[in-house]
Amino acid sequence: MERLLLTIIIIAGAGLSAVSSAAGRQYYFVYDRKNFTEAQRYCREKHTDLVTVDSMEVMKILNNTADLSKMFYSKNSSRAWIGLHADSWRWSLSDPSFYKPGETEFRRWGVGEPNGGYSYKVCTGMGSDGFWYDSGCDTSTYPVCADVRGSDVTFVSIDTRMTWTKAQSYCRAHHTDLPSVRNMAENQKVKEAAGGNNVWIGLFRDSWKWSDGSNSSFRSWKVGQPDYNNRNETCVAADFSQSGAWEEWPCDMERAFICYGPVVSNKVMMKVKFENKKNLNLTDPAVMEAMLKQLKQKLEGPGLDDNIKLSWRKQADGKVFQQEDKKTNKRRRKREEL
């Protein structure tokens, strides 16, 4: 009966908080409190981005990993930022060369506008007084189209009512696009072209979007959320005292956050000793594979997850197994007894 020494290589996630084997992602809870923008910057510098939660599997992983004792605040404890946020207003004509610095931010909202929070009111009209209002995109309104030729821009009124989306398609097919209003002079020109009507302009707002640009439509809102009561509540946190249900919050609040990145592998070598009582052929690949499976089952018990991978490490002589030196073993036992 042989006593044999062998070395196996264990590959596992290094320093991980949680791993999704299906998505191939590693999730990191960061308990240093930051606002949404700071958290986003940290995740992009250190990992990939703020977490995109795109399935119940990910929700379960995050719930099992969250440490509520590290998310205790004076108010609204147990929350952590995820990557979902409401996008800002932007223009239908997206060519950056069309805008000088600051021109994409020009606004001429009427009193109390926009008043839809982050609800269905995500398109913009101009009233007959030249002030803007937010509106549901499926409302039928006259559009104004823009013709852009170099630095020259002219505005054309269309005498057919249509939804914002149809107006955008019409303007792009027959002109350049819906109008981008970059300054007060252009605001006046669009007002004049409208001829006293309320008209569509090119400003619109995307609804909720993920920080990394993912297009996942998975949502796990808390009951009653989002409530759209506060226009400043444009970032999303998960409440881990309520199974990670999502809530909208002002982005300047400071709290823990969750990053994600690719799974990082770490190799660990371990020497294992066993007795070949059945005189197995240890060079048989099937025998070696069966031994690895048994070893993996034993290792999973102490806490290693399903993502560990085991492989044999060959010695300098090309062999995996080495017979134990009895003299060396006796000296080792004597040292242990002293």
TrEMBL record:
Q: Which intervals hold domain C-type lectin?
A: 22-146, 149-260
Q: Where is the signal peptide?
A: 1-21
Q: Where is the composition biased (Basic residues)?
A: 328-338
Output the Pfam families linked to this UniProt entry: Lectin_C
Domain of life of the source: Eukaryota
The record's keywords, sorted A to Z, are:
Signal
The cross-references to InterPro entries, in alphabetical order and at most eight, read:
C-type_lectin-like, C-type_lectin-like/link_sf, CTDL_fold
Residues of the region (Disordered) are: 319-338
Question: Which PROSITE patterns does the protein's record reference?
Answer: C_TYPE_LECTIN_2
Q: Under what name is this protein listed?
A: C-type lectin domain-containing protein
State the organism named in the record: Perca fluviatilis
